[in-house]
């Protein structure tokens, strides 16, 4: 049975969950001047929203399950890698001018709230009662298969590029060293290219065009 909460697109409840989730981790990070939870809080928030909206939807439609898994798998990979990286590096230089300033530091977390909520919107809306009350196109068209293939390519390109750049920085301590190994030998920003593919293909599979 579908769960109806606040509005039938799940916009309000996912926004409130995101705000509460990020403020909880912000309070820890600011109180203890602790960088290790920031990116973990961002990446894991995607997983929370995907799991909650899919559970609320009470649907067994393949499209909803596949696109929710896209968001969950990507969020797991991102949060896991960033958490591992910050454990190794110890601190995040991005926050050196913000960590001790409440509103500056909060500004980053507000931006993270918006990032999580907006990027999750395709899956949030697809899983909502106002969409699922209509007959959905069956998953498995050529367009869907292409989306899955290119999402997979983008996912592994981003994941491998992140590891390649991390390893390069570990062995090259020069401040101006430019990574030119692996995918970076072919592209300046292969991790961003992978990210673009992941997000585009998630959106593409979420809102697959209906047939006549």
Total E-strand runs: 0
Biggest pleated-sheet summary: none
Oligomer: single chain
Overall geometric form:
flat
How would you characterize this protein structure?
By secondary structure, this protein is mainly alpha-helical. The chain folds into 2 domains: 1-134, no CATH class; 137-212. Helices cover 69% and strands 0% of the residues. The radius of gyration is 19 Å and the shape is flat. It starts with 10 loop residues before the first helix and ends in a 6-residue tail after the last helix. The mean pLDDT is 90.
Q: What would the keywords be for this entry?
A:
69% helix, 212 residues, mainly alpha, 2 domains
Describe the structure concisely for a colleague:
With 212 residues, the protein is mainly α. The chain has helices at 11-32, 38-57, 62-89, 102-126, 129-132, 142-171, 190-206.
Layout of SSEs?
Blueprint: H1 11-32, H2 38-57, H3 62-89, H4 102-126, H5 129-132, H6 142-171, H7 190-206
């Amino acid at each position: 049975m579908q769960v109806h909460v606040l509005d039938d697109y799940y916009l309000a409840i996912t926004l409130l969950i995101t705000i509460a989730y990020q403020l909880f981790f912000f309070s820890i990070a600011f109180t203890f001047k602790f960088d290790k939870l920031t990116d973990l809080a961002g990446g894991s928030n995607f997983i929370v929203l995907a799991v909650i909206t899919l559970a609320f939807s009470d649907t067994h439609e393949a499209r909803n399950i596949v696109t929710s898994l896209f968001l969950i798998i990507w969020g797991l990979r991102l949060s896991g890698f960033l958490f591992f990286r910050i454990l190794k590096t110890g601190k995040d230089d991005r926050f050196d001018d913000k960590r001790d300033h409440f509103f500056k530091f909060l500004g980053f977390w507000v931006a993270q709230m918006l990032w999580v909520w907006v990027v999750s919107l395709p899956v949030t809306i697809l899983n909502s009662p106002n969409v699922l009350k209509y007959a959905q196109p069956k998953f498995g068209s050529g367009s869907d298969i292409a989306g899955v293939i290119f999402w997979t390519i983008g996912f592994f390109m981003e994941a491998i590029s992140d590891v390649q750049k991390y390893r390069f920085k570990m062995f090259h301590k020069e401040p101006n060293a430019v990574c030119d190994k692996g995918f970076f030998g072919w592209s300046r920003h292969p991790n961003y290219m992978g990210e673009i593919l992941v997000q585009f293909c998630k959106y593409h599979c979420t809102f697959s065009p209906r047939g006549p």
